[in-house]
Specification:
Layout (H helix, E strand, L loop, with lengths): L2 H8 L7 H6 E8 L2 E7 L13 H18 L2 E12 L7 E11 L3 E10 L5 E14 L3
Antiparallel strand pairs: 1-2, 2-4, 3-6, 4-5, 5-6
Length: about 140
């Protein structure tokens, strides 16, 4: 699969709301499982303290692990996930990187790291176990 086709396939992991479609930009698939993307987190996804809502932090991880497993060539669903909230910041642009920890026949474990774009500070780190539903069909 060529890179343009792969990038388009990855975008199916983003919900259809235009605000989210516009906010997420896939920068690079360095190799299968390793995806780098940015999210310009909209103000509408802040918590009552004005920071990025924890649900948005989880959402970013979920999108990232979907990107990673698609880049490995598999349809998937999330089986389990954990997230560590490291630093609270107002809604801003974030850089997200995925790393496969395990890629087997029926599951993949993906680590997703989210940093503030402006400072590089670690915001969230999540680990997702993905159930693999079979190869992606072209």
């Amino acid at each position: 699969m060529d890179n343009a086709t792969l990038l388009e396939k990855l975008r199916c992991n983003i919900p259809p709301q235009q605000e989210l479609q516009d906010a997420i930009v896939i920068d690079e698939v360095a190799k299968p499982g390793y995806v780098r993307f940015t999210v310009d987190v909209p103000e509408s996804f802040s918590n009552y303290h004005g920071g990025i809502h924890g649900g948005m932090g989880y959402f970013i991880g979920e999108i990232g692990c979907g990107f990673a497993t698609y880049s490995l060539g598999f349809n998937n669903v999330c089986q389990t996930a954990t997230i560590n909230f490291i630093k609270a910041v107002p809604c801003c642009k974030v850089i997200v990187e995925t790393e496969p920890i395990h890629a087997g026949r029926s599951t993949a474990v993906i680590r997703v790291t989210t940093r503030q774009a402006e400072t590089g500070k670690l915001l969230f780190q999540s680990t997702h176990t993905m159930f693999l539903l079979g190869p992606i069909q072209d």
